[in-house]
Amino acid sequence: MGQPASRLNRAQSERAGFWDQEDPWGPWQIFRHAEENDPQHTNFIVAGPWFHGEWQTPKGDQIGIIPFGGHETAREFRENIQAPFFRYYLHGQGEKPAWQASTFQSGSNTWHTYPAWPPKEAKPTKLYLHTDGTLSSTAPDAASGPSYREYVSDPANPVPYRQRPISPTYPAGDWRTWEVADQRFVDHRPDVLSFTSEPLDHDLTVTGPLAANLYAATSGTDSDFVVKLIDVYPQDAQKNAWSLDEGPKPGQYAQSLNGYELPIAMEVRRGRYLTSYEKPSALTPNKPAEWNIPLRDHDHVFLKGHRIMVQIQSTWFPVIDRNPQKFVPSIYKATAADFVSATQRIYCSPDLPSHLVLPVVP
């Protein structure tokens, strides 16, 4: 085999979509495991603001109704990243990439390259959940009031992952873009807790792996906790497309970004696997436990004037099967009697400070 082909055999490049509804974990896991043995530094990753395969679409200039600031990210990826990569590794022309990661940063709508991922300048920064429903960099103190917030999770009335009526997954429908859907359709539910920051007085850039550390308890013996990190747009995020005299047409306001709650990261953790993925076990009712919930890798700027929101819930149906909330050897063999309501508590106290860990770039 000639030199160009052998070069390609030694190179490993992954593509990832920050809103990939099919395989959000796979590319990052391949990238990280390849990094464990990469003496020639031929392990690369490219990530963009895409649903699964959007990098192959003609333009990639938006996802859902979220625009990318005039960028045709799919075309730019193919022309500026993919083509030079293959020219070098297949034809021996041009130069080897000087970066390890190349991303299209949402929020700022700009391309970035990083010599290492995650970038070394990103500093883990905690955002704390408070019982008054706020979110801030200040840790809870003894004078904050109650030590927890709670809600009742009922498997018979699960929180949907898409707004009903849910369209068919394929073909068409909104399956490809559900991960950027406006989360206002659930934030009024009594079984969804929301924590919201004040409007930001400066841009906040998060680049790298995100995580949530919850201190939570359930009255059941099994449970799920879903965490969503959300970018809340201001009410005047974009100019109205209608006149003030006539007002919006039916449904038109819902197609604007004013007040939009854009999910940046969403993930679920199942309690039966809290201590071991190989040996599931029951939870102790009403006993607080630490739930470490990875929220994957991202590159996003929360713009000045926007708010940061965290939503927490215990059902996410039907993308995640319903947890009976009563420990059974196999959920797939659970009977109707096994599905029970449970009271869920999220602790926000000095001793049990639930928080997010964000890789903030100065």
Concise overview:
With 362 residues, the protein is mostly beta strands. It is built from three helices and 17 strands.
Task: Present the secondary structure layout.
Elements: H1 3-10, E1 12-17, H2 26-35, E2 43-48, E3 62-63, E4 66-67, H3 73-91, E5 101-105, E6 110-114, E7 123-129, E8 135-136, E9 148-153, E10 193-196, E11 204-218, E12 224-232, E13 261-270, E14 289-302, E15 307-313, E16 342-347, E17 355-361
Parallel strand pairs: 1-2, 2-5
Antiparallel strand pairs: 3-4, 5-6, 7-8, 7-17, 9-16, 10-15, 11-14, 11-16, 11-17, 12-13, 12-15
The string of secondary-structure elements, in order, is HEHEEEHEEEEEEEEEEEEE
Distance between the termini: 47 Å
Overall strand count: 17
**Strand residue content:** 25-35%
From the 3D coordinates, which CATH architecture of the largest domain would you assign? Answer: Sandwich
The best one-word shape is globular
Mean pLDDT: 94
The CATH class of the largest domain, by name, is Mainly Beta
- Helical fraction equals 10-25%
Radius of gyration: 22 Å
Q: Please state the oligomeric state of the protein chains shown.
A: single chain
- CATH fold topology of the largest domain: Jelly Rolls
Given helix and strand content, the structural type is mainly beta
